[in-house]
Amino acid sequence: MSSSPPPSSAAASPSCPKKMIALRSSDGETFEIEEAAALQSKTLENMIDEDCAGTPIPLPNVTGKILAKVVEFCSKHAEPGVDDESLRAWDAEFVNVEQATVFDYILAANFLEIPTLLNLTCNVVADMIRGKTPDEIRKFFNIKSIFSPEEEEEVRRENHWAFE
Amino acid sequence: MHMEISRCFPWLSRHRRKQDGFKTLPDDVVMDVLSRLEVDQLGHAKRVCRSWRALIGTAHFTRVHLQRASSVPVISPMFFDRKVGDRGFLFFPNWSSQVKKPIRGAKSPGFRYITTMCIWDLLGCCDGLLIFSAILPFSIYEIQNPVTQEEIVWEQDGSICGFFLQSLPNKYRLLSYRETPNGFLYHTGGLWPAAWKNVGMFPYRPREQETPSGVEGRLHWMVVGKEGMSTPCSHSIMVFSTRESKFCFMPHPGDSCPSSDGHSNMHLVEMKGRVYVYAIRDKLMLIWVLEDYASWHWVKKCDIDLERDFNQHPASESVTSYSDYKGMQLIDSQDGELLLFWPHRGFFRYNLRSRTITQVMLGLSRYGMMSRVVVAEFKSSLVSLKDLQ
């Protein structure tokens, strides 16, 4: 009589649930993300490879509020069968948030190495800069500028470019 | 008496003061954001604060910005009635018929006394740097960046036929040739007296007034032999690898030409990062694209029946024979349409699916005198001429 073979954890059977990865934010919240979605992040991909299985991966640079949204983004982008146009519309809605949050997304995308999110958010900020004068840019982002009068003059002289 | 505001007005400290988000970002990320801006926007960005100004001024930023930029064709029209001192002008064809202003740099003074004695030809463009040659007197060249308004003019022996970035070392180089009794001797070298390197002697040289098509570190030209004689079809396209500084000679696509000057009406054009060949045969324009360089595999993209498709347009009323189509030039492609230049008649958009044409009005006069155009692929860049050293 032969005994049944031991269950293979590597086998992908239809009834086998998708592998979930646990993440812990800087403020102690835990989130679950499907492996396929997690692989959008090169940082997570490396950590998964190192087999830190079981314990939640600590992400000290990302708060719970932002991590929740990042998980949402990665899950959406790992979804099969979404057409380009609706994904773009979804992305546009995703970044339709206040300025400070966009910067938080950039930081998270940079830390977690998520190229799609980084590209999306950097484009958003570039769009915010586009079409504004230096003064308007400073006001919009609350940037302090401390050019001396000589520097101001030098910069003004340098910048006579344009296809005018 | 100084008192802390938050103690006098405790409710103030509860407001989240708006932060400069950029301060939280590492430099390379700020660079990523700024590199997405167009060149004229960068002019504004440089005036925002010291750190932005410093970042944008680096050679690294120039590279990153350049890699993002997409190229557009820049056109130099050739008029029958060219005269000395005529720099002509350069412009970007705008598909939607809006008048696009000429590039300011093309009119810049430079060495005025030389300029007025010359007729300038567009030789090509690399990384946003335009290179011109003067017809009279011979052997004067100019490189300019119309964005930064820098330019340099110099005299040089030989004919420059290529301008490229050599990756090792990261330097811009010129490719020139000189005719000798045994053939054409090619050299590469820099602007300032760096040693010029012999890269070979060949019986062929690039056709005049045709810019090279440069893709993936290789320059391509249609070539002719001594005294402008036609080359064998098997050696009609010359390719120069900028990485290896080596030449090779390849056959053009399609069948071998029946007559001795068969491929004189075949031309190379670079569109959207790929190399194409087009040829006018009787009343057809045949177009091939180079699918794979390693195997030299060309694929026929389409045949345009010029007589049938242009027939509807009033511009074809003056057509008396097939030779009226002969000088037609393919310039650009976009969204399933081709941009064509028809000598003395103007610019047309050809829709590949509906096979209809629309004339593109660019607000230029003197189409009647425009015999051909010279096209180069241009990217707005901040590359400084100091980088040419």
UniProtKB/TrEMBL annotation, chain B:
Database matches in Gene3D superfamilies: 1.20.1280.50
InterPro entries xrefs: F-box-assoc_dom_typ3, F-box-like_dom_sf, F-box_dom, SCF_F-box_component
F-box domain: residues covered: 19-64
Entries under SMART domains matching the protein: FBOX (SM00256)
Pfam families, sorted: F-box-like (PF12937), FBA_3 (PF08268)
PANTHER family in the cross-refs: BNACNNG10540D PROTEIN
Protein known as: F-box domain-containing protein
The species this protein was found in: Eucalyptus grandis
Record lineage: Eukaryota, Viridiplantae, Streptophyta, Embryophyta, Tracheophyta
